[in-house]
Automatic annotation (TrEMBL):
InterPro entries, per database record: LRR_dom_sf (IPR032675), LRRC14/PRAME (IPR050694), PRAME (IPR026271)
Gene: LOC103674742
Family, as annotated: Belongs to the PRAME family.
Protein name: Melanoma antigen preferentially expressed in tumors-like
SUPFAM superfamilies: RNI-like
GO cellular component: cytoplasm
One of the GO BP terms on file: negative regulation of cell differentiation
Organism whose genome encodes this protein: Ursus maritimus (Polar bear)
Amino acid sequence: MKMDQKAIATLLELAAKSLLSNEPAAIHALEELPRDLFVPLFIEAFLGGHKKIVKAMVKAWPFHCLHIGALSVQESYYEILEAMIGGLQILPDQNSSSWGPKLRILDLRQDPDCGTTCSEISTTFPFCFQSCVYSQHSILKTEEAQHNVKCLGIVNSESEPPSTQKPVELLVDLSFNGTLRTKQFLSFLQSKVEQSFGSLHLCCRDLQINKISAHKSVLQFLDLGCIDHLELNQAYLNEVTTLLAQMIHLNSISLSNISFKRCKGEDFRTFLIQLGQLHNLQELSLALFCLTDQLHKLLRILPPQLDTLCLSFCGLSNRDITVLSQSSQASHLRLLNLSNNQIFSEVYEPFQTLLEKVSGTLQYLEINNCLITDSTLSAVLPALSHCTHLRVLSFAFNPITMPLLMGLLQHLTCLMELKHVIYPVPVHCYEQWNFPGSLDRQKLAEVQAQLAAMLQVVERDDMNWTTCPE
């Protein structure tokens, strides 16, 4: 009688938990441990914070790759990551067997869609779906070069060193946030890279930097060509341009608090030239980045396939909205954030035209704190109702009345993909609109109850209407 997969998995978990109850025995047993037990044992050891076992398991890992994937721990996070890195065989071990460790790719990034290890496929090189493909120091590029050299007969057995350490790849997402523990972890990483004498390739995919002036020295040990997501807060525009010149494979950029003198200056022109070289760019977010009447210059150099555009606190004008509605990017946008721009202070027609242009693709729309009034929202409502793929709408902190809010709900319930709406507190709930401390929470509770009842009547319990009170 065959056992089902669920029952087998349960037995493996029980066996793993039993091993962890005796840490020294578990570490000693790794030499004879069946391959099927490694993954469940690692999961239990990682979640339980068993740093010594995790380190030993990395050293004895029988697969090409190891991913944290969906695993997470609240306490001792850096400690367990350092234990895993400490288990990597980045230098030749004279006491180890001749075949050396099998683990070649250690992935410390959290990804809910990634398993602990990839399915093994018979290929010339170690296979992993997450392998670095850009850097010349990556395993794929290094071993491909070595394979080609051997095929050409350039290297023979006499000239080849008898014990060459195979390259190892370490995948990470890094945040330079200035905390002491983060600095210690970065210093630990840097020392490991230096000790490896080139056999450890540190591949950072997602980099977050807060105040670049404090982290310039740390940036020097990163291979910036690997980075595909950059989030940068507080920098001079010329510093951003210097980084972009080295991060040629970026597909997502988020910049905030970037200092520059004027949009007509040399720094801005150089920035645009470099930004235009990022042909893989799909997501761009700018905040506190003055673009008044200058958006056309930015859109001119951005790739047409851009699907995310966030321009909060950018001082956008109606002219900028008109330019955006006429751009090649508009018909591809899935996410658009125009919050904290007074784009409705004069006329609404440019935004109405923009909604018509994005209606075929738009899924997320944020227009918080844009001085949207009842008359403006009523005018653009027909165009908004044609955004049939819309999933999230956020228009908080705008002076809207309760009658308009109720009418809006009735119109939007026909958008079956729309699940989340973040609406403004109606003006009647304030003694003085949007004035701190003047919100009447009893009135707000009545608003929330009335909207919930309306959703129930039209059988849209799947829609979540929430607000952002002070």
